[in-house]
Amino acid sequence: MKTKKLSQYGIGIALLGGLLPTIGFASMGNLATTYGVLPSDIASAQAFSLFNDQVSAVYYNPAALARDSRGELTAGLLHADHSLKAESLGGAAPLNRQGKTLLDKPSQHLLLGMKTDLTSMTQFEHPLFFGVMIGVEEYGNEMMAFSSQTSPQGQFFEYGRQPLFLNLGFGTQVWRGIDVGAALRVTLHAEAKLHATTELDGASSHESMNVSATPSMKPIVGMNIDWGETFCASEACWFSGFETALSYRDESNTHTVVDSYITIDGMLPDPGMNLRILTLDSYQPAITTVGTQYQGSRWRFGGAVEYQAWSKLGKEIKKDTIAGPAAEADGERPALQFRDIVVPRLAGEYNITEHFAVTGGVAYSRTPIKSRGALDMNLLDGDKVIVGLGVSAEYPKTRFLSFPVRFDLGYQYQNVMDKEFDLYSARYEDGQQPYETVKASGDVHVIAGSMTLKF
Amino acid sequence: MRKILIFTAATLLLSACGGDDHDISYAEAEKDWGKGGVIYSYPYHGQADVSLKTPIVLRFADALGDDFPAEDVALECQLEGCNDVPWRTFELVGDGQSVVLMPEVTLQPNAEYCVVSGTVKLPNERLCFQTTLAQEKRGSRTDMGANQALKLAASFPNLTAASEPIVDFSNFRLRFNQPLQRNAIHYGEHIVLRDAAGDVVAASLLVDRHLLTLSPKQRLIPDEKYSLELAEVPALYGGEFSETFTFTPQSTEPRSILVQETVSASDADAPCVPAANPKTSKLTGAALNCVPLQSVLLGSEDATMQQGDVLAELAFLPKFAKVSPLRIPRGSLLTGTNIDVKIAGAVPAAVDGSMSTGDVSVSFISDAVGYIFPNPYSSAADAPRQVRLFMDVAMTAENATPNAALSQDLLHVELNGMATLNGKNLEIDALGVVEPEVLGTEVAFGLLSFQMKSYSADEQAQRLDKVTTEPIKPELQSVYPLVESGAEAEAIQASDAITFNFSAPIDPDSVELGRSVQITENEQPVDEAKVRVEGASIIVELSQGLRSESNYHVALTSDITGLPIPVVKRDGGVEEGYRYYFAEATDPLAQGAPIDALSHDFTTPVFHEEGLEYAGHVEASEAPSIFTHPVILTAYPGYPCAMTWHNEGGTCVGDEGENNPALVLPRQKVPANRALRLTFSKPMQRLPEGAFYVEDEEGNEVKGSISQQAMGLVFTPNEPWQAGKKYTYSLYTGDCTSGPCSVTEQPLLTAPLRGTANNAFVDFVVEFEGAEATTNVFLPLRNTPTADTAAALTYYPALNQKAEARLAAGEGIPNSTKLDVTGWDGVLTHARVGCAEGDCPAFSYIHLVGNLDTEIFGAGEYQCLFVKDDGTPDDNYCPEVEPGEQALAVGIYPTAIMAGSADVFAEATALIKLPAPTGAQVMRMHPGGAFPEQAEGHALAQNALYRDNPNGLIPGWIRQSEEGPVFETKVQLYLDGPNLEVPLNGKHNLQNYPLTLNLRGAVEFSEDGRMRIHQANLNPEHVDVKLRELLGLLSSGIYLGIPEGGAYLTYESQPVK
Q1: Which of A389, B808, B916, B1018 has the greatest number of C-beta atoms within 10 Å?
Q2: Band (B348; pLDDT cuts 50, 70, 90)
């Protein structure tokens, strides 16, 4: 492994990353669900992710880690460019907007993954593979990217900076053609406790601050059935080439609790004013995916159906101090509600030459937001059409590397279709009437490249 | 590979183009939502009990442009028949964010007003408030709300709705819809606070007008159920109210003490004047914490600046997130700078400094409890919170004389302000109005523009450690009646109260008849008396009034204390931090300082004629009789004699126009907010039902309430007098079951010009007209001290004693006229006054009995009243003055003064001696002519009672002189001697005998706060008594002279309390 060269790249990227502005701007969903982890996921619009033989399978379907027995070291960069707009359609008291664009900040990830064969670890010689996938926002500069806020002008539900993406998992073969895998997704739950005595202008004294972060680990399980290998391993039958996979990713989120006690001499004695905020970000629903693919000689064709259980977010959000009020209906204003969605995905791959392959995918994702308005949060979203395209090149031998290397490049275009939302604020008419109606729409261009060393 | 690198580089560079922050903040959003309107107003929407002279103050979130559309803001009166009030001025202050609008006229009492505007954005479209009730004697019963059933108008904290939380340190302020019968309300009987077990909770009660404050002596126990019972609380004009309220107080622990500084406007000696460049309020633009007292008597230029630290106790704020209670404990003190009292703002009240107030202190006589509310007009994030605080304060002055005049309790002073954070400090800007009574007659107006700032944390601890721990000990400053121990109180009248004035406020709970206050009358203890505390004064009123020629002894023990001082205690240490808290009310450190025990005794003069006998030099057979009948001394409106009414006005019954034209009094105009008043010369019995009757021009009865004191009567109509409408009031005479009689059963004599004949007791009828309400001050005065306290109108032993004592001391005899015999003719060979021979200096004086009503107008340009017949000023009497000099314009209601009998001894020859006592005489004042003209546009020129002088008032001025303020007037009199019996069947010319007196004298203030006006004639006058038809054909004349200064009158204002 030529780690030296990689680290040179790493330094270079890190240096460049340092020039970029550091503004936290997070959202629901995560790197994997919103765009895709590696260029191959991006190109196929995640339709082939269940069967991905790269290390990103540790998230999508850990069972797929067992497809390729080679170890792997992957590094990549992902850049998602957003151009998300909210067009004002007027209202009772519309805001003075300087333009339509709400979000044009990108999401930029440094991707690192490693997969290794642990078969020889045990005495049983049972195939066991271990994978780790890491994605760090802002090319390695932003690990937390936690942000939860209200917004009078509206904010997009998905898209924005993502927190640390960390997954570890195992994949193994249980019978011929049947692989299973289990992985853990690690997110951080942080808690900050602040005690301070302050004057009215904020000059504080006698402070104490304690911050702790607990990792929250949520399971991902998956299963892969290669029909051909299971039923007719020795000779071809009509099963050959078909594969089916099933994976379940438990819901996860990043949440933060800030518990502060402020005393002001002469006005607010012990215990003081208790300011407590509990809020969550980057919520990923429980996703159940069923997919199938058919591997032909030079082409591959597959599809997957995802069931994303977003409706649970509605209950979770009631505990959130920032978004909680939005989840309660009041008078004429509806409560913020989410619905479970089904996302169909289709992709195809064609090997142009022995080394080159081109992939294309398409998916359609309805917006999980069921209600038309959310008090003060003003979440915007739309139904999305996702189209991906990518190339991959695999060179078994290169001039200076002894192991095969694979380069992937993927491009994805997401079109957020028009949807109308009403904006509400507790400061306008007590949140009873919307002050503006907006049409949310936008485009997202994602481009990613990675280099994989297979060993 | 290279392509990968290029791609990567490209994406990295692309990512560097991040857009601008498009975030819109909530503050910007609120601007687009059209917020930014009114954030503060005075009065606040829904405020009640607002002063009639209130300004309207509005503060906006953004600065207003110069073109504030004042024409488009209207003040609408919601009463029927009541017009919109135009604005006199409007001013943009406070960086252009506040506007102060002054109404043109005084508002109507007990009415609702609303500020409306088409263009200016007002919350709820209109801002409405209720004005306060009229003060007693300054309005009809409707203006005092007394024509309806007694009801509880409001309570603070609210007992019926939960708008203000009731907490453990709450006290209760109740406002009723009409005045209460103050002296009859007792805690434990009419109003009781009971705890959960039904036991009575110790509490103290403060009652004034229609306001009541109930303060539990200890903190309430949180989470326990209490009940407040009102059982038949009596109203002054009849009616009772009963209701029971229950509540459960919340705990406010842990509390904190916030030290607030009352910001000084400037450091100069006179800090409130524009020359001192004072800091101004952002709400009104007036100098900070300066209380100007606007009154006709005291003038509007001077202001006292309040200073001092105020300690406020805050409830634990997180428990009371929306509405946070706070309290300023009882005994807190604000000290104000000196004011030099000036009459009408123009004439210094004294030149020797006795009328400089010294430090003016405002003490909290009960806990001031208030709340911090969210802004009621705007929900914008930066809209300041509203502070509403009610306080009961006692105003006292350091110097004795002003203290006696100003010392009083002011209940339910409401401060309404906004709380903002200014850097490190919490700043409270508040407005409040105090309306103290001046000299017991006028209600002054003072708008406080308060600003209080909190200290930083370390300064706060220093200040708390420096807080005074010594309560103030009240020292006796003066007593009314002001006499040496045991001496006779010459000027006292039967219904006067005995008053003790101290240097600092007294704790009302420590004053109790029988325990700390003991009264004896002629050595017998008196139980029927009411003792009350007003600021720094203790007032004792005997229920039966003072008895004639009795000795009174009042003792005050040292159980009486001043107000307790709020004591701050500290516990905790350096490690865990210090906690400051107020000591409990039962803590020995927190008690008021006791006074030094004292007593005062005096004797009352003879009030009525019973048992009196003539003690002059005339022989018994010819001696003048003691005048037994009571007469009317002043009538408002009207004249002290019964009149017959014709086109031009009224003429006294008995005035035949002999010698000179009859005196005609015009039908006088009574402003809508005045009561009718009569005063008598002797203490009177209760008036029988129906003896006093008022009707309008259509013959309908005008209903009202009659309140009687020993020597006076006041009629308050149910409805205000209607301008332009004619009315008549009648006092029906008769025997004592149907007409007015004195306490000695003597019927009222209404036609003194007829002597004491049977036809001198006619019905007393006065025709008058209603007029618009006025802001003039009606000041009733009494001709005291007079030697003739019994109104016997001749010489009797007590009178002689007084006169001789004065002469022996070389002093003038107040309210007397010296008569010298300057000549005689005709058949007479000799004439003397007083005695036939020998020296009897005391008997050459006749003594006067009378009262005087005056109308105080206000400052005007002085013009000398002593003019010659051609109208030019008479240089003999007119002083040298600067042109344009300001003086206080006064109008005297023409009245009649009863003069005692002059014992005249005449000799026709050495053998025929004719004693001719004149008998009781009457001096009637002529109605005056036009008032001196004032410049167009001057307030006086527009004053309805000044311009054209419809009431026939006699003009007078109080102006400045080197010796102090002086009062000047010129009266024309008719002297009548209806009781003169000319010997030998003769006739006399003492009917409509004209006299003109140019009067001038000092105006001074006594230590008990009363105003005293001395008057002496500048011009000598003479009375030429011509007797004719003696024995049918003889005539003679006796020439009497009144030397310069011979007529010496003193007028005193009523005792202040």
Answers
A1: B916
A2: confident
Residue B484, pLDDT score: 87
Parallel/antiparallel/unpaired status of strands A178-198 and A252-264: parallel
pLDDT bracket for residue B747 (50, 70, 90) = very high
Decide if B1033 touches A, using CB distance below 8 A. Answer: no
Determine the residue type at A134: I
Residues of chain B contacting residue A101, judged by C-beta atoms under 8 Å apart? 19, 22
Rounded to a whole number of angstroms, the distance from the CA of B40 to the nearest CA of chain A is 19
Q: Do B28 and A139 count as a contact with CB atoms less than 8 A apart?
A: no
Q: What is the pLDDT of residues B985-1025, one digit of tens each?
A: 778 888 999 999 999 999 988 888 788 999 999 999 999 88
User: What pLDDT score does A197 carry?
Assistant: 85
Is the ipTM, as predicted for this complex, more than 0.95?
no
> HEC states along B579-612?
EEEECCCCCHHHCCCECCCEEEEEECCCCCCCCC
Q: Is residue A35 part of a domain?
A: yes
Does residue A406 lie within any of the structural domains?
A: yes
Tokens of B748: 């009222």
Q: Which residue has the higher pLDDT, B128 or B869?
A: B128
B24 contacts A152? CB cut-off 8 A = yes
What number of CA atoms fall less than 13 Å from residue B885's CA on the CB side? 16
Pull the structure tokens for residue B458: 């370390």
| DSSP conformation class of B834 | S
Look up residue A48 and give its two tokens.
Answer: 């082939």
If one counts the domains in chain A, the total is 1
pLDDT at B604 over 80: yes
Question: Which residue in A152, A266, A430 is closest to B457 by CB distance?
Answer: A266
Residues 255-294 of chain B whose Cβ lies under 8 A from any Cβ of chain A: 255-259
Is B317 an interface residue toward A (CB < 8 Å)?
A: yes
CATH of the domain at A147: 2.40.160.60
Amino acid sitting at position A176:
R
Residue B208 has pLDDT above 70, yes or no: yes
| Domains within chain B, CATH numbers bracketed | 33-130 (2.60.40.1220), 152-247 (2.60.40.1220), 256-465 (2.40.160), 476-603 (2.60.40.1220), 632-1053 (no CATH)
For A55, the domain range is 3-187+216-252+284-454
Quick one: pLDDT at residue B9? 56
For B32, the closest of A96, A139, A430 (CB atoms) is A96
What are A84's two structure tokens?
A: 């998300």
Phi, psi dihedrals of residue A298, rounded to the nearest 5°: -120, 5
A248, part of any domain? yes
Asked if residue A194 belongs to a domain, the reply is no
